[in-house]
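Entry 14. Structure prediction run on the chain below.
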Amino acid sequence: MSKGTSTAVGRELAEAAKDGVGTSARWAAVVGAGLAGGAALGGAVSMGTATYFAHRIITPEHEKKDDTTILAVTEGEGDRDGEGEVTLRATPNTVAPGRYGLWLDRGAGHARLGEVLGQEGTGRTATVTRRLLGVDKGELAPGSARWNKYFYCGDPTSALGIEHEDVLVTSDVGDLPTWRVPAAPETDNGDWAILVHGRSAMREETLRAVPVLHRLGFTCLIPMYRNDIGAPPSADGRYSLGLSEWRDVDAAMRYALAHGAKRLVLFGWSMGGAIVLQTLNRSDVAHRVRRVILNGPVIDWGSVLAHQAELHFIPRPIDHLARGLLRSRASRHLLRISEPVDVAATNWVDRADEVSHRIFIIHSATDETVPFGPSQDLARRRPGMVHTFVWPNARHCQEWNTNTPLWEDLVASFLR
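Output returned:
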């Protein structure tokens, strides 16, 4: 192991300790053995890095830091269309085409941004100016903020002007807070859509789909699932990559059927797609599902882990060791998980023969988080059953943001 690699891994271990990963006796033993030096150091660092990597995969990330700098705000008269402009430090997020939001004051405020109006400078001094579409709450002023790819904030009523009810869906972990958006009486034909957000995301992620579904006559059910902020935790407080979360979607399906649903549509974003696929395979009421739509889905967690390992310069053997730790019952206490997480069970390219529902996948060719290759591979393995639309240019799960009319047309066409 090179000095540079050792130093980088040391930083990872320090970060792991700050995150609470290094509190178990076994972790201490591993690191202690590593301090002996030589080959033992390499082995200990490899085990430590693999443990850290595996732990990060399954740990919810609820505390998110500000990642955007607001440099100037121009509102009111004199601006194009009277909407105002916002100048930001240029980042991959802030220069992306489309419509987005900004969380202000650590989530207490929110603003909506439109298209890019201009860019200036290069490198660290580069800036971008975007159209300001509105301030939903709080004060928009120069300072730090957090990028919101959902565009919307709040609930269906406050964000979209579409009436909703707050209901509870009972799963094996407890009562899950859920938004129920009734279909308009004149369009209600018994079709319900259950919308499943992604990993460490919020229900607001799914709001982008509600207007088109509402126009089509669907009742929308948008549940939290275990380990969401405000939802009951699992026994270990860890994600299982869809292998346990599917029970919460199953509970939402049963709620819908008990409240008048005749046909079901499942809609999943990112890890929500992985959860939906497990639900279709495991639920006793999956035969009531008529159509499935997945946006930027995790079709194979193995490919996602390999991609993330490569991005973060984690050697392939450590990636494989991390998967082994997740799968092994012997390492449950090391990772503090109740049950093993078998990454191979999430590979729907290999399990394509088990796919028995009509699925439509929207996935960007430039998705930097979840590679789109497995989505294409699944469609090739199940022609006529699985269809994909490869979006030309959008960041992860931001296809709607870049071209809302096209996204809604694709969804509507598939559901009709």
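The longest helix spans residues 38-58.
Filed with the rest of this week's runs.
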